[in-house]
From TrEMBL:
Source organism per UniProt: Chitiniphilus eburneus
Molecular function in Gene Ontology: nucleic acid binding
A Pfam family per the record: UPF0102
Entries under Gene3D superfamilies matching the protein: 3.40.1350.10
Family note: Belongs to the UPF0102 family.
Name this polypeptide is given: UPF0102 protein FAZ21_00960
Amino acid sequence: MIVRGAAAETQAADYLTRHGLKIVARNWRCRQGEIDLIARDGDTLVFVEVRARADARFGGAAASITAAKQARVVMAARHYLQTISPLPPCRFDAVCVDGGRLQWLKGCFDAG
């Protein structure tokens, strides 16, 4: 089964919830970009990019998270962080779905 778009985000949110994370927001948008999922992992705020591909050819879902996409997610996360206090520790994760196989990549990129 091919999982795309909103279905992949729902699958990712369910998976992360089963693994102890609490979803704070879905499809959070600002002028700088969009964050698919924002979650809490204990005290850590996790910004999650969700990607789905029919199969892993051409690098698969993980390879589709380009440096430009990472920069847009980081900019959006910085904007989101301006709305909360105190600032928590943060992490950038990805949930990749390739041909129905889900992979959770913790800390796969940083704000640098």
